[in-house]
Amino acid sequence: MRSEQEGTTAPLCAERRLLYFCSAPLLESTACFTHVNEIVRGLGDLGWNVNLLAPPARSRRGALRRVVDSLVMQAKAVRRLNEVDVVYCRFHFLLWPIAMWLSMRGVPVVQEVNGPYEDVFVAWPAAQHVRALITAAMRMQLKRADTVITVTEQLRDWVEREAPQTYAVTIPNGANVDVFRPEAIATFEFSEPYVIFFGSLARWQGIETLLQAAEEPGWPDGVRLVVVGDGTCRPTVERAAANSRVCYLGPRTQSEVAGLVARSFASVIPKNSLGERNSTGLAALKLYESMAASVPVIVTDLPGHAELVRLNRCGIVVPVGDAPAIATAVSELWRSKAASQAMGSRGRQFVLREASWACRAAETDKALTGLTQSVRGHVKELPA
Question: Same domain, yes or no, for 268 and 288?
Fold first, then answer.
């Protein structure tokens, strides 16, 4: 793998050459960082020569700077497109220029879709002022893509409604089963048993509901809630840490998180309802990573992850926004250790069988290989 953000510009060689565009900075310990790098690594293992292009990985970038970074990245890539067999884009409105340019010249383009248009306006509320323009740019990318990869079945249904003529396939998130495993080494030790939440501390993650659950009478005595991550709800979590049941560890590396998850007796994923956004399903990275660690999960009853947990009997599904139900689920898993261990075991077996990043890379390879074979000999020559 070569990355533009690392300053390498060596030309690609050999067949099965892929140029991967990610318009978001790849900040370590984020879901985007993990997903992109795991797929790139997996495709490399399968014989793809992958060049990854992403903006500079700086944590504090204003909206205008992000736009400029993305346009500069795309401009640098234009003259290198004769060297690739397929271009892979992580769906983002900022990639509209390069996606349209490629489409007009017959270069095969794959769009990886992790969420609908609405995700832009949840992340960047100010973008509501140009909602129509952003939506049109993103819809056009879907319509002009040769293949669309989605992370949930519900999201694929959405793509097929938005772009009926575009071929779409579902390849969900996964987990690194060598990092997230029951034997992962813990760098933090707690004398008390605990459940864990890890990831982005955003309101839609259900942080406030989880903190409320830790104060409910139904929460078992002597059990702590460990929170790992960063985000807009960090001050709320820090205040709650004054409660002896809550321990906030801030953002941590992937290996540190893996050790913490492995030593927990449950992982809580209390996502909130986001209205229409929920209709496209949820496939949280932390869900697969928790399952890979052989830890039972507690998830809210939302499309995507609720069905996965029920089907594999690897955790407990609770109503959205129901703090007492979360507390009761924690208590149930703590008091029923045999059942809890069985849930965790079933979860890991599922991930090993179907949801490791190696499995996801193989599925992606199949989609890319089918695309390149179907268009070989029909790609227009690009300007030198």
Answer: yes
